[in-house]
Amino acid sequence: MNFEYISFLKQTAKVIAPSGNEKEVLDLWSNEILAYVSEIHHMPLGNVVAVKHGTCGCRKKIMLTAHADEIGLIITYIDSDGFLYFNEIGGIDTNLLPGRTITIKGLNGIVNGVIGVKPIHLQERENSKLNISSEDLWIDINVKSKEEALNVVQIGCVATLTSEFSVSGSRITGKAMDNRCSMSVLLAVAKSLCNVDVDNDVYYVATVQEEIRARGAHTAAFYINPDMCIVIDVTHATDYPSMSPVKDGDIKLGNGCVIALGPNMDNLLSQKLISTSQEKGINYQLEAIANPTGTDANTIQISREGIRTGLVSIPCRYMHSPVEIVDEEDLNMTTKLLVEFILAFNE
Predict the structure, then answer these.
(1) For a tag site, which of 67, 196, 243, 307 has the least CB within 10 Å?
(2) What's the half-sphere exposure (Cβ side, CA atoms, 13 Å) at 302?
(3) Cα(233)–Cα(248) distance, rounded to whole angstroms?
(4) Mean pLDDT in residue range 251-260
């Protein structure tokens, strides 16, 4: 079955869903996957677990995960003139923030703002900062006082950087491709398998709070206790100026999904993903990761007595910026690999 990745990505890229505020994007995902699975569960922390029951009497549990949250900002203080101060949620390069427009999830709806920046004409060259912190910045929402600001926002409101969603050929640009593109792959896999007999139970899990140390994945893995898990996330594409293949890896947009190898991944699962790709003619790339990954695989692998875990990634340029770029062909290859991987365990 074909799946319309771009439609889902366009719809969800505009959603404000930093860690701890994923419900809106999870609801969109849940409503779509419901048609392809046997049942769906909403966990207390926020994870959504969709299950396709297998047909084998002694079936195993195969878990696929993709995180729903994105990086963002949280309002921490409002001064007497109505300017807002903030901290980052997740890993953000603060140097990218001055002069950016942002979208705040306000008390009564969306509030637009801009992160203020002193014009270069007024900056003292000797005092310029190459590495600024969030304490040096503020958000201007075009109000005149704290009282006026409090009519639309409060401390604890969250925001994301504004970004235009666009498509050029197979290339997709927008915010939160990390990791909405992997959520779309889960939907595509579920749709592909919905009318196919599968021996084992398949758990499609949209996790929360990955950007703050994979908290949702930890609870989901404990709850499901799968026999194996494949995490779907993005990884750094390195096919642009300033990148070194020796230092940064050699990952290209459009060259296929990326299979990770290293201590955070079960070697037998990684090799099974590689052999499945080769047998089915699926384009793939390899990535060696020496340390625990910055993905849900980190906590899932060490849940309970340990869970066999693999990691399949989608190449992404400019990760954790408002202009992340992915290639639809890589989404297709990731979907095909996961479908064939699951079917390979049929008796």
Answers:
(1) 196
(2) 9
(3) 18
(4) 98
Report the pLDDT value the prediction gives residue 268, as an integer from 0 to 100: 98
Give tens-digit pLDDT for 279-335.
Answer: 999 999 999 999 999 999 999 999 999 999 999 999 999 999 999 999 999 999 999
The CA–CA distances, whole Å, from 129 to 92, 119, 124 equal: 17, 13, 10
Cα distances (Å, whole numbers) of residue 257 to 168, 225, 231, 269: 20, 26, 12, 15
Cis peptide before 108 (omega within 30 of 0): no
- Bridging pattern class, strands 324-327 and 171-174: antiparallel
pTM over 0.90: yes
Query: Could you list the active site residues?
Result: 210
Q: How many CB atoms lie within 10 A of CB 154?
A: 12
Cα 61 to Cα 81, 140, 214, 345, distances in angstroms? 56, 50, 21, 11
CA angle 238, 243, 248 (to 5 degrees): 70
